[in-house]
Amino acid sequence: MSNACGWSLLVNNRHRPILRAVARKDGRDAVKYGQCIFCPTGTVGLEKNSARSQTSALFGSDLVVFFTPEQGHEKWNVRPLSGTVTHPTLGEVATLSGYRIYRRMLWGKFLVLMDEESQELHEFSITLFDKNGLLRPHFKTGYRSGTGCWGDELNEDVLAYIEEITVKEEYCRQGIGSQLVQGLRESKYNPRISNIVCWPSTKDGGASKAFFIKNGFRRIGRTQFFGYSMDPKHPSHRILPSDDVQQSVREAFPLPPKPPLLASGQNLYEISDKIKLERQQRFPIHCAILSDIYPPSSRSGCSSLYAADDLGFLPMHVAVQAKNMIAFNTLLDFGRVEDLQNYHNADGVTPLEALHDTMVNGRQRMETLLWASWPEYTDTDLLMEYAVKTAMGVDTGCATVQDYIIQNKHG
Questions:
Q1: φ, ψ for residue 28 (rounded to 5)?
Q2: Contact, 187 vs 36, CB < 8 A?
Q3: Quick one: which of 142, 147, 173, 192 could link to 158 by a disulfide (CB 3.0–4.6 Å)?
């Protein structure tokens, strides 16, 4: 993807400026074809390295990768990360920007600080981690874990996040972007980084994803994020690209298009009513459940009982997440118990997992983003959770639903 400045974009998931000024300060880190050459005065002696001579002969051995420590950032535990590739005559030909995230002192505050930094880091943090910066349990086992190669090692203190890599359009596909990534791995300013994470753009026909896969990144679970471990023995390094999860659950079930802009003479309520009516016509059972009703016509065994919505969620998912016990029991009466095992949707979750995520995320949102005291799980939450587990044959650990509510009230 290129912009008006003629730069090819490798990572960019939000509408933001493509290029960012890189402040060069004393103590720059020069990386030449993967070798770290320290240059506190800015004078660099270069040595040709034939092992990494993948770059076009146009550059020869003249390209230098600089990684610069940026000072003065207000948050010491979330620090900007900048890198450049320069040529003696052509000047700056590529840049990398991102963040170094230090989680040791972020216990209980991780989601808040990521949310304050940017929308992209907010999406990254709430997708993969809890409020303490620890990987969510469902990425370690089960369907959402994908290949299962990622686990507790993502909880290690220092994490690098690549926000964007840009290469001048006329110098693309000459190995320059790969040199930037290699430079990040070997920079003296990042000795404690244990893992690098990125979110490849989906707006370039897969070029960004292919770039990071080529450089050793592998998908984290079934999310849109990819990771690289600095540990050469990490399981991800043994996964061939063809064996990795090929698309995230969100790619399999893309979000519906946003409503069109208001035309002359239209108002927001008219557009909203039109969308609502269209959904009622397409997914009548889903909408009836959300309206806390279950129409008698559904008892005729219509196909809507079996139909997923545009994000793959079945009526059973909606009934459980909405905690509509009447709809839940009615679906069971119609023999839809197998739907409790279904995870083919945009979140990759079963109805029970969807309910649990809603309960846990609600608690974390209140405790972290809203700075409020979380009281307890409601009786309605726990009653539905108990009913679903019982229908699935899962051991609840309690003899009665009242015991279950008392035991799990506080998480």
A1: -70, 155
A2: yes
A3: 192
Through-space distance between the first and last CA atoms of the chain, rounded to whole angstroms = 46
Q: What is the DSSP letter of 134?
A: P
Other beta carbons within 10 Å of 36: 16
For 28-45, the pLDDT digits (tens) are: 343 333 322 222 222 222
The DSSP secondary-structure symbol of 381 reads H
- pLDDT per residue over 308-353, tens digit each? 998 999 999 999 999 999 999 999 999 999 999 999 999 999 999 9
Residues 6+ away with beta carbon under 8 Å from 13: 120, 199, 201, 202
- Beta-strand relationship, 193-198 and 158-168: parallel
CA–CA dist 217, 25 (Å, integer):
30
Cα separation, 365 vs 357, whole angstroms: 12
Residues in Cβ contact with 83 at an 8 Å cutoff, skipping those fewer than 6 apart: 22, 65, 66, 67, 68, 95, 96, 97, 180, 183, 184, 187
Q: Name the residue with tokens 């945009």.
A: 346
Secondary structure of residue 284 in the 3-state scheme: helix
Extract the tokens encoding 248.
Answer: 């995230």
Residue 84, classified by CB atoms within 10 Å of its CB into exposed (0-12), middle (13-18) or buried (19+), is buried
Q: Which residues contact 352 (CB under 8 A, 6 or more apart)?
A: 320, 340, 385, 388, 389, 392, 394
